[in-house]
Design a protein that fits this description.
By secondary structure, the protein is α/β, with parallel strands linked by helices. The strands form 2 sheets. The protein has an 8-stranded mixed beta sheet, with helices on both faces. The protein starts with a strand and ends with a strand. 42% of the residues lie in helices and 14% in strands. The structure holds uridine-5'-diphosphate-glucuronic acid.
């Protein structure tokens, strides 16, 4: 099929490239000439494992990028809206880019003779596709949805860093459409996939995405709460969750306790769902608590540190890991941000290390120290805090000898203290 992808962020680029790899004809549209140039040269505008290889195989063949909306909509049968949906100052979803994309597509649909489908892939609160995108498309095109064109919602479940793998090995595909013709065509796109395919209306598809992320975030906050209790009881919470996760109804995933969740999705999506609930006059107590527990974990790390170093004023503290999780340079909502903020408020001298994310953190904290290696960050430190689950921290050993005091507060359970001459404190264990 001929597909246009609106927006070349991580969802758009991965979706477009993977559709091209499935044999579809793909055109990616973006307003940023740099991104367009890069994609056409086979260079991914973002880092994603496996993306560069696929893009190189398809760029200039059945995948190209353009600034030209007219040609993209005229030359394709289906458009995916893959634009960002940030949170506004009140924690509500900001649909500016979805509106803009709908307007731009709608204007081009006016003169289009053949049936075209517009699919929202961006994460949007329930009711957005039918209540925001669809009326704009109808108004701009002068056509009625379901007659002149079709509308759908097809959420993504792609982890950052593993997005290509997740696209190619999904647990399920959710197709939301308010008319059967659109649903059937969207389904054809995924022909060959063997996972369950669930067809719903657009509102339900939107809710499935939010509830999936909110549930995963809830699992993490639940694991953190259990971990905080276990720590006080002298019980290893990781063994507890191993036992709990063996129950097939629970599953072992997303039960790792520690500093909590960050990233561009969980905090934003839980907040947006809370905002949506408030709009319909419901107070989501559990979801609010999920965020509260998450916010508390960095405070607990600081408390544990102060148990060993009561006065942090002027003391060098190493922070290892700045990204919101391993294998990414993304620091959005990283737990390292409030952690460093709290250390600075106590007057500590922070030296941070992250092999990929330091550059971004310099925009947030330009005045802290940045080391080139974990060992350099540890050099002369009174204590260290581990904020990201980078594999390389598992191997740290002799580097700890460079510290003034070998105190390690591990927020991600990456250091095994056995056989190491260190004072080790796990966040929840
Ligand atoms: C998440 C979801 O996992 C994807 O399914 C979803 O498509 C995506 O959001 C999205 O909405 O686009 P992502 O934000 O890339 O993906 O990150 P995750 O791998 O889910 O991790 C999120 C955070 O939870 C990280 O800070 C990680 O350290 C933390 N985490 C994860 C825990 O603290 N404990 C765990 O057991 C698992």
């Amino acid at each position: 099929m001929r597909i246009s992808i609106i927006g070349t962020g991580y969802v758009g680029t991965v979706t477009g490239t993977c559709f091209a790899h499935m044999g579809h004809e793909v055109v990616c549209v973006d307003v940023d000439p740099e991104r367009v140039k890069k994609i056409n040269a086979g260079e991914p505008p973002i880092y994603e494992e496996g993306l560069e290889e696929l893009l190189k195989d398809h760029a200039g063949k059945n995948l190209r990028a353009t600034l030209d909306y007219d040609a993209a909509i005229a030359g394709t049968d289906i458009s995916f809206i893959c634009v960002p949906t940030p949170t506004d100052a009140d924690g509500r979803i900001d649909l500016r880019f979805v509106r803009e994309a709908s307007r731009s597509i709608g204007q081009r649909l006016k003169n289009k003779k053949s049936y075209h489908i517009v699919v929202v892939k961006s994460t949007v609160v329930p009711g957005t596709t039918s209540g925001v995108a669809r009326p704009i498309l109808e108004q701009e095109s002068g056509k009625k949805a379901g007659e002149g064109f079709g509308v759908g919602m097809n959420p993504e479940f792609l982890r950052e860093g593993k997005a290509v793998y997740d696209f190619q090995h999904p647990d399920r595909i959710v197709i939301g459409a308010d008319d059967p013709k659109a649903a059937a065509i969207i389904r054809q796109l995924y022909a060959g996939y063997t996972c369950p395919v669930l067809e719903t209306d657009t509102k339900t598809a939107e809710m499935i995405k939010y509830v999936s992320n909110a549930f995963l975030a809830t699992k993490i906050s639940f694991a953190n709460e259990v971990g905080n209790i276990c720590k006080r009881l002298g019980i290893d919470t990781y063994k507890v969750m191993e036992g709990v996760g063996l129950d097939a109804r629970i599953s072992p995933h997303f039960l790792r306790s520690g500093l909590g969740f960050g990233g561009s999705c969980f905090p934003k999506d839980v907040k947006a769902l809370i905002g949506k609930a408030a709009e319909v006059d419901y107070e989501p107590l559990l979801l609010k608590t999920v965020l509260k527990v998450n916010d508390k974990q960095p405070e607990i790390a600081l408390r544990l540190l102060k148990k060993h170093v009561p006065d942090l004023k002027g003391k060098k503290i190493a922070v290892l890991g700045l990204a919101f999780k391993d294998d990414t340079d993304d620091i959005r909502e990283s737990r390292a941000i409030p952690l460093i903020g709290a250390l600075l408020a106590e007057g500590a001298k922070v030296v941070a290390y992250d092999r990929m994310a330091a550059g971004h953190m310099k925009n947030v904290y330009p005045n802290i120290g940045y080391a080139k290696t974990a060992g350099d960050a540890l050099d002369g430190a009174e204590a260290c805090l581990i904020a990201t689950e980078w594999k390389e921290f598992e191997k740290l050993d002799v580097e700890f000898a460079r510290m003034r005091q070998k105190i390690v507060i591990d927020g991600r359970r990456v250091v095994d203290p056995r056989g190491k001459d260190i004072i080790y404190e796990g966040l929840c264990w």
